[in-house]
Write a structure and sequence with these properties.
Blueprint (H helix, E strand, L loop, with lengths): L1 E10 L2 E11 L4 E5 L6 H9 L6 E6 L2 E2 L5 H7 L1 E4 L11 H7 L10 H11 L1 H5 L10 H13 L5 E5 L7 H16 L3 E6 L2 H4 L7 E6 L2 E7 H5 L2 H8 L4
Parallel strand pairs: 3-8, 3-9, 6-7, 7-8
Antiparallel strand pairs: 1-2, 1-4, 4-5, 9-10
Helix pairs in contact: 3-6
Length: 238
């Protein structure tokens, strides 16, 4: 569904992504792992067209979308759930959700989509009239994922959903992400911690990035057999 071929992305003169190639097939969850500052978010911004590549190809459903405007890429069915959780603080949960469907759906489909989101995130249903700004960090993360679902994306790019959240909430969110895949969705997930990625099933694939390059790839099962190298790439004990 998504294929990056030898992608190079710069911020000014800083060469951040250095020949990144990776693939996400329909129905997969693919994890992009790497320590702070290696280029994970930049990879997602490159796919979305927010930080377009200087060279290389980004194929989505066999179209090369490299260099296209972000709104066009979004319309093709890719949705980015950013690491900074951009919930609108002075809109309610329901209003935030509806915003997610404005561009992509007909008005009579929206109530059904809201119900679908509440089935995944019952906590949000309990908070339906609460303002986005009054939600906990975990609830804001859930709302950002749910808002993306409202646009019925073909591919969801989820950037570090676990960041700064309590272990119990991380567990809840990972279970929901697993369920989204079971229901047929395709997901690329950015994560810093191998132990969180390992909660996905063994046959899911992961790429490990270091200094803007892909250093390792394989199923989580295969990577867990090469833990010494993984620890070296991630720079932490796992
Ligand atoms: N807007 C920007 N302008 C210049 N340099 C940037 C910009 N955004 C990121 N960088 C640099 O690009 C590199 C990769 O950043 P990126 O945000 O992609 O890393 P990351 O892997 O997502 O890290 P984190 O785990 O901290 O989110 C870093 O060295 C960072 O300092
Ligand atoms: Mg990041």
């Amino acid at each position: 569904m998504l294929r990056l071929e030898d992608v190079n992305t710069y911020y000014g003169y800083s060469h951040i992504l250095q020949g990144v190639s990776l693939e996400v097939k329909e129905g997969e969850i693919v994890v992009l792992l790497g320590r702070n500052g290696v280029g994970k978010t930049t990879t997602m911004k490159t796919i979305m067209g927010v930080q377009p590549p200087k060279s290389g190809k980004v194929f989505f459903l066999e179209d090369n979308i490299a260099g296209q405007a972000p709104h066009k890429i979004s319309r093709k069915g890719i949705s980015l759930i950013p690491e900074d959780r951009r919930v609108i603080p002075n809109l309610t949960v329901l209003e935030n959700l509806r915003l997610g469907s404005l561009m992509h759906t007909k008005p009579d489909e929206r109530d059904g989509l809201v119900e679908m989101c509440f089935a995944y995130f019952p906590r949000l249903k309990e908070r339906i009239k609460h303002l986005g700004g009054n939600l906990s960090g975990g609830e804001q993360q859930m709302l950002t994922i749910a808002r993306a679902l409202m646009g019925r994306p073909k591919l969801m790019l989820i950037d570090e959903p676990s960041e700064g959240l309590a272990p119990k909430i991380v567990h809840e969110i990972m279970e929901i992400i697993k369920q989204l895949q079971k229901d047929g969705r395709t997901i690329m997930l950015v994560e810093q911690h191998m132990e969180i990625a390992m909660r996905l099933s063994d046959n899911q694939r992961a790429y490990i990035m270091e200094k803007g390059q892909i250093r390792m790839c394989g199923t989580l099962d295969e990577l867990s057999c090469r833990m010494d190298e993984v620890v070296q790439c991630l720079g932490v004990k796992v």
